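This is your field. Pick holes in the following sequence-structure pair:
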Amino acid sequence: MVMNSLSFLALIAASATATLALLLVFVVLVDPYGLYGSAIAPSLTKNKYKMSAFERITKPVTVCRRKPKAVILGSSRAAVGLRPASLSKRTGPAYNFGINGAYLMEINQALRASVECGVKTALYGLDFFTFTKVTRARAKQVQDVRGGFSWRRSAAFSRHTISLQAVTDSLYTLWGNIRGLEPSHNRAGMYVHYDPANVPFLSPSAEQRKPFENAYKMFNDMLAFAKRNDIDLRIFTSPVYGSHQRKDPVYTAWFVRVTTLAANYGFRIYDMAANADYTADRGNFYDVSHYRTDIGDRIIGVIFKPELRTYPDRVRHAK
């Protein structure tokens, strides 16, 4: 009787182990977050539908796998408005490493992850709001999967493989590919199906955020890192619709300071946010804070062809 009970328990244990192994293989092969680069049955798995929720782990991994020559850095404004295809015409293969809702700490990690994987050019859409919030936990998500093998990277992969959510997201990935659903992001990392509905954005009169302590030091460290690694770093202020453009003393002081810091390392900040050619027409924006791709293309054209620049710098007026 005891032997029968032990045999039954062993059978249950073996069945559970086999089921878990099959689920793990299923998640790895479907690869809902693009962590493994699985290429089996691409017609069923090539589109990933969970990118917007997992950018902080998928994009650092993808940029190392793709090894582009250039990346786009910034918040959702850069992710939505800047086309890697337009940048690649000037730099070689490009990837959009813009992250939805990203603040300075996450962008700092994105820059470092890109450089570790061989990137030599970065186009950085700079936003004041990214200096106003400490996001250590979210930045750590990017940091944990940077570069090659590490225990932190292995633990992050495990968390996003051995879970009920990973299985559910794998099933959704299969269903979406079978149904021919459009993914939120394209394979070059760009947020191509942005939905501007219900996007909160404070008017300038209601905006009270200020840079957090050590924000300028972190930005300075990013610039020093780029200079030390001989990175061609092109920076611009992201345009927003004119009625929502900040012009208060806090913003002006921020702009003067970041421009001065950049100049210390030989980098220039192109002030697209001050240029009415971009900000005056509401039709140039999906919502008041996210510019359309034709504006993004113009920005890329100006920054990578400086001789076309004709607008004045805000810093010249702010001093």
Summary: The chain has a mean pLDDT of 88.
